[in-house]
Amino acid sequence: MQKITTYLWFDNQAEEAAEFYTSIFADSRILEVQRYPEGAPGPAGQAMVVSFELAGQRFLALNGGPQFTFTEAISLYVDCASQEEVDDLWARLTDGGEESQCGWLKDRYGLSWQIVPRALQELMSVPDPAAAQRVAQAMLGMRKIEIKGLEDAAKGVS
After folding, report:
1. Stretch 11-30: mean pLDDT, rounded?
2. Are 155 and 128 in contact (CB under 8 A)?
3. pTM
């Protein structure tokens, strides 16, 4: 078991969300579903806590009721190796959700994600500060991050 595990609070969609997330990422699976027993605060038989892995990272999801909702104060950052991976994850996670800016989105459950191509960090770390600034400005104008636009900005191409 990993030392620190992200714990996600859902109203009543924990099992559905875990199934959705594990269908998107490779090396992902549902590990265990603990269900509410008779007389518990939740409906008997409904998932109480769902343990699952995304790309080998363990998460817990709780059906805790509507008292708390997700905010952008926490997000799941996904390091993407290619534009194709960015495009695929963006399409799947925004299905029923909403786009934001700079690679951020909210999925259908309200959880915030950052879908970021590795190329962004590489281009922001170039030794030319003017090129890095152009890359940052280009990224600020994007919703889904487009590597080609970042590369053009680094080169000074409009």
Report:
1. 97
2. no
3. 0.93
